[in-house]
Design a protein that fits this description.
343 residues, Methylamine Dehydrogenase, Chain H, 4-stranded antiparallel beta sheet, 49% strand
Length: 343
């Protein structure tokens, strides 16, 4: 198994813990990043900038010019770098989180979303407008193959427990797709209709949760039979996911409803719905689990929400069209990408 330099030694061994999210619990910051000052990085899709927020003062302290159409900010698998996906520049802007400054630019096609296999051996560029998953060596950024997705709008994904396959949404095709990573091949799909977006595996690995903007809720997909086995209504424009710090709940942003729903993994049911206003999009939870950081896609703001009460505590003005923000560092052994998903 390949491991990038600087990664936690624990990541070399498959995690057999019953919960996939056991390693993201409060206080378990990896020693390699424990000395980094926490910051919230916000990609402003139509401003072509990244705003850097101090999570103590709740103020923007820096704005970084990047490429055209930044969508998500992705921590590298080994937690050393942050990658800004500039979709229309076909580049990644690399940010050093210790200095909070850009260090280089990498050319890859249409990096709408970026992920890393759980073993750290591959980077996966989700090229939405090209309908393709491009595989790279994350050390050299040399090509390691590709998979053409036959439905429109390849969007978000998550991996099986040990990374043998991934489950991918197609935002404009209404299809949820299973891809065998070793064989670089689509091996299954299920039509859920609407507009599926974010994807998250359950703590026990048995089902995948898929947000659906048009249907206003969350599909439960059995990855073995590739069937929709349930649907949880949440709110109009169900879009993004974030797992609670203790791994028991799934936060769902309902972008058009201006709400956030809380789904309990154990019961597969909504336990709370918070009316937060704005247009909540992508989310990150603080290391202590008390705060939820949320980009408001159509409001040029970031909201900070109490996970205890669901109240908006702070609203921070940022650039135009803020999208896949990340709070870094966070607990976890390694990053599997997107806007900061850890295991």
């Amino acid at each position: 198994m390949h491991t990038q330099p600087g990664a936690s030694q624990a990541a070399k061994v498959p995690d057999r813990h019953p919960s996939i999210y056991a390693r993201i619990s409060a206080g378990r910051i990896d020693p390699h990043v424990a000395d980094i000052t926490p910051r919230v990085y916000v990609p402003n899709n139509h401003s072509n900038t990244v705003d850097v927020i101090d999570p103590e003062s709740f103020r923007v302290i820096r704005s970084i010019d990047v490429g055209i159409g930044p969508q998500h900010i992705t921590p590298s698998w080994n937690l050393r770098h942050l990658y800004v996906g500039n979709t229309y520049s076909n580049t990644l802007t690399v940010i050093d989180p210790r200095r909070g400054r850009e260090t280089r630019t990498i050319s890859i096609p249409d990096p709408y979303n970026l992920y890393f296999t759980p073993d750290g051996s591959l980077a996966i560029d989700v090229a939405e407008r090209l309908g393709t998953l491009f595989f790279f060596d994350p050390r050299t950024w040399r090509s390691r193959g590709s998979v053409k997705i036959p439905w429109s709008g390849a969007d978000h994904l998550d991996f099986s427990r040990f990374g043998r396959y991934l489950i991918l949404s197609t935002e404009f095709g209404g299809e949820v797709v299973k891809v065998d990573i070793a064989r670089r091949r689509v091996v299954g799909s299920v039509h859920v209709g609407g507009s599926p977006v974010d994807v998250k595996i359950s703590p026990d690995g048995s089902v995948f949760y898929v947000a659906n903007q048009v249907r206003g809720g969350v599909s439960l997909v059995d990855p073995h039979r590739m069937r929709e086995i349930g649907f949880i209504p949440t709110g109009s424009g169900a879009h993004g996911f974030c797992v609670s710090r203790d791994g028991s709940d799934l936060y769902v942003s309902n972008r058009l409803a201006g709400t956030i729903s809380v789904i309990r993994f154990a019961t597969r049911s909504v336990t709370s719905t918070w009316r937060v206003g704005g247009s909540p999009d992508m989310m990150q939870v603080s290391s202590d689990g008390r705060l939820l950081w949320v980009s408001n896609r159509y409001d040029a703001t970031v909201s900070v929400i109490s996970t205890r009460t669901g109240r908006v505590l702070h609203t921070i003005p940022v650039g135009i069209d803020p999208h896949g923000l990340t709070l870094f560092p966070q607990p976890g052994r390694f990053s599997i990408g997107h806007n900061g998903v850890y295991r």
